[in-house]
């Protein structure tokens, strides 16, 4: 019986062995399948490349919410942010573009750091060429004064400079040409087309704000204030309801406006008083502004030595000092303005004091003729290039608003003294400048009549348009 059982067991053994062998083979095969290999990855790549071609728009977006893989981070690139241009000089790219070529001319846009020598070198010319051009005459020496944004062109034939052209602005260029007598220069000026434009407005806030609303640029507003600055104190006298009208020039070149010119006629109504200014150029080429009857708008002194400031303290002999906190005569006028606001000489004269003066801090005193002096105090700094003894003209900048000395805030303290006696600069009567000379009166009358007609015509037209 035992022998029969052993015989049956031995008969089954091969079957069990085969099962075990199959099981081992299966495990090995499964393991090989799960393990990554370069061959398998290559197979996947091949299959992906054989997918049907689709457009980018037709590709489905992956659902990133259904995967637990970390999100792919974008590459971080350092961005170069250009610095904003705060001046009118055209920006120059770096590296510089290839020079423009017009027939035999080769042109370069002058960049920061360029010199006349470096530009000649770029054009294939030598330092000897630079010397020959700049020393040919005293006029040619000014060629070395170049600025970024200007354009310089060379005409070179047989390795020799024949002509040079420097475009300094849209209207002015310098051309140098080689002749038998050496390099000769000439200034070429283009004259723009002048067109007149009219603007008017009513003061509701300030001259600056309301003139800007009327379409005047900052430059035109400052010119308007300067013209009427002898008659109107824009810090003290302006009232709501005052009005202005102005005819000014716009300059065009090749059909494009390139800038503004001068104010040729203007009117300002201040507290019901109409002031008219007309521009006239005499036979000597000197231009100035006059009233319709030929009196000069210019006075011996400006009413306000700073532009668009506000009165913070008037002339008062019984004022309480804001710093000392006691009664102390205030023998001048204080103009509150931002630190750094330019301070102008109110009249022609000579600086007789420039330095620190007690509670006035940094101060300047100007002598006007034999009996008038003006004082400007609490400056933050002086204008460079001036000193005690320097001559100044009316409107010249002499310093900048600050709060040096005994000052509670940035402002200009301004005093006007006649024969050593303090006068209220807001009320003192200033002498007029010289009127139209007798020989110029016929020409002035013709110009004045034309300008007054234009002012009335523009005003009437504008009223008609507003009433439509």
Overview of this protein structure:
The protein is of the alpha+beta class and 468 residues long. It folds into three domains: 100-189, Roll (Nuclear Transport Factor 2, Chain: A), CATH 3.10.450; 192-299 and 432-468, Nuclear Transport Factor 2, Chain: A (Roll); 310-423, Glucose Permease (Domain IIA). The chain has helices at residues 2-34, 38-49, 116-122, 127-134, 207-213, 218-227, 441-467, and strands at 100-102, 105-109, 151-157, 160-167, 172-179, 182-189, 193-202, 243-253, 256-270, 273-281, 287-290, 310-313, 333-336, 342-344, 349-356, 362-368, 372-382, 391-392, 397-401, 411-418, 421-423. Strands 12, 13, 14, 15, 16, 17, 18, 19, 20 and 21 form a ten-stranded antiparallel beta sheet that branches. The chain has a six-stranded antiparallel beta sheet with strand order 1-2-3-4-5-6, covered by helices on one side. A five-stranded antiparallel beta sheet has the order 7-8-9-10-11, sandwiched between helices. A hairpin with a 4-residue loop joins strand 4 and strand 5. Helix 5 (207-213) crosses helix 6. The longest helix has 33 residues, at 2-34. Mean pLDDT is 78; it is low at 30-34, 36-99 and 311-329.
